[in-house]
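Long-time lurker. I teach an intro course on protein structure, and each term I like to show students one example going from raw sequence to a predicted 3D structure in token notation. This year I'd like something fresh instead of my usual example. Would anyone be willing to generate the tokens for the chain below so I can use it in lecture? Attribution to the forum is fine with me.
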Amino acid sequence: MTITVEPLLDSDIEESIRLEHAAFRSGGGMSLAMSPTAKISDTEMQESSARRRKKMENPHTHYLKAVDSELVSDDGSKGKMVGLAHWNIYGAGITDDELQVLCTTYPPPKLELDEGTDEAFAVIAGRAWADFFDYLTTCRRRFFTRGPTAFLNLLVVHPTAHRRGAGTMLVGWGVEKADAMGLTGFLEASRMGAPLYRKFGFEPVHQQMFDLAVYGKEFEGVHDTNYIMIRPKKGEKLEHPTV
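-- Reply from a regular --
Happy to contribute to a lecture. Here you go:
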């Protein structure tokens, strides 16, 4: 095994944002509609880096990177980041103010369109972004467990590193924490990610279908599904009905 899980460092932030963007670009569906360009503008990199740096100051926040020691990073050093997770661990439960933070919607990314890309795609991305995060906010208010909770806020793996164990290791980190601390698990899952989470005991309590045709003829016939998934405390059963 050449992949290890390590805390994300301040010096890793820009690389982590590039990895996240590449992962969303490869995911299809809503994630592609929200990220129609391969480029990240300098302004977007600066603003995203500042937000991530601020989040990392929160004691509940744990950003983790999966590093493949056999690959070479962008700066030429040995060991390349191939996966990223953002866990929030609320050992004493979540307050109303903390839930409000989780329901804060950031503006859509400032896109630097690829050459030949219609500027209409920036408008489409903004609409898709608003629709998806409105959905997340609604579901977090409805389903988020208010007791002690381990929340997987983000999990991405670089498209060149799928099925090598990075995602499993990053999810496993939080599940081990949850079992040790007696926490309920909560996450939002793409159609691609849901099977992995099921292996760790997460069960879907809600699913949302997205018809991407509303964003233009380029997406006619394209549909996507997102799931709200909960993992009961170790030794307990899920109280919510599953879907």
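Some talking points for your students: The mean pLDDT is 90. The longest strand covers residues 78-90.
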